[in-house]
Amino acid sequence: MKKEYRQRLVDPELAERLKSIGAIVIEGPKWCGKSTTGEHHSKSAIFLDDPQRKAQYMLFAEEAPDMILDGDTPRLIDEWQLAPMLWDAIRYKVDHRAGMGQFILAGSAKPADRSKISHSGTGRFAWLRMRTMSLYESGDSNGIVSLRKLFENPTAPVAATSDADLQTIAFLICRGGWPIVTDLPKEVALRPAKDYYDAVVNVDINDIDGVGRSADRAKRLMRSYARFQGTQTSIRQIVEDMNGGESNITEEKTVRSYLEVLKSLFVIEDMSAWNPNLKSKTAIRTTDTRYFVDPSIATAAMGIGPGDLINDLKSFGFLFETLCVRDLRIYSQLLGATVYHYRDKNGLECDAVVHLPNGKYGLIEIKLGGEKLIEDACRTLSELSVKIDTEKMNAPSFLMVLTATGSFAYRRKDGILVVPIATLGA
Known about the structure:
37% of the residues lie in helices and 15% in strands. By secondary structure, it is an alpha/beta fold. Strands 7-12-13-11-10-9-8 form a 7-stranded mixed sheet, sandwiched between helices. A 5-stranded parallel sheet has the order 2-3-4-1-5, with helices on both faces. α15 links the parallel β10 and β11. α8 crosses α12. It is globular, with a radius of gyration of 22 Å.
């Protein structure tokens, strides 16, 4: 019996965009649900990584692409990056057929050999990013505090309850948002993240382009990257951490090449810096903030579990930030918004800035919880908000402290929102 389809937040976006473009490219990490979502919206499908047919499909892709592309539309071409020469053939089909929504391309990596693609696809292709599930999608957030509604009506009352405690959030960080985990009992739900990590370091990092890479070096890099989640750590610092104080074990050039592969596999997704108009000249730090696409990749790379996070609240805080950034990116995508970070030369930081295309934005600080941490976050938000030159740009639509714990989502007397992550939604 076919498994019942689990609705994702990108479904309406995909359905709508299929009405206005010839082909949609769904990108994201393996196991995040791209194939399932693409198949749900398609009328025919072909899976290029089918081990029994893969060799024949590759021959067809080179010599007879119609054998792959012909079928009821929308037609799903899954793991299309294995045959990048199909790109031009799809573009040709879109140009010479009538109608929109002809193809859905799903891929868990960027094409390794772009020399087989001669055209950008402008006007024929659109891109849609999928990530692992947000807490709202996995049923672990009630979603009562809507990010969309905060922008639509910033002064509306905010009220919601949450029963998530630190132990629950620690488990959700280590479990991750992999779709498979929603059907697993809690005692084995941490396993998929570890399996994903093992596949990346032992198989995927080589399969993407056929270049032999060291699994041990990949493990050391991902472990180091995990320790620097939520920071603007330089490549040189990552190299030093990997080398453990010794020189010339791993070079910076090598680390950069491995990181490019991890980006191509959608394993890491760093965050760019926000550059607002300020009342006074202040140098803004522009280094990207380091993040895995899902916090469970970091815990798997470090070999730790929920209990370890409870015993190390500093690491817990950084990995909770990774979870929050994942969810904010998923919810923001529905608004066409981008999530940035802010840090200036004086050390003033803001963990997340959700910026809409129309110029509206919200400032968000991420904290585990507790009165002192919330007060510190509120001071940071207030200090940054008064620095912004509102004659040259909008005032923030909202200021928010996003927390791991807390029984209620509410608005403080100073207007700042305190929102437990288990109450946030799209």
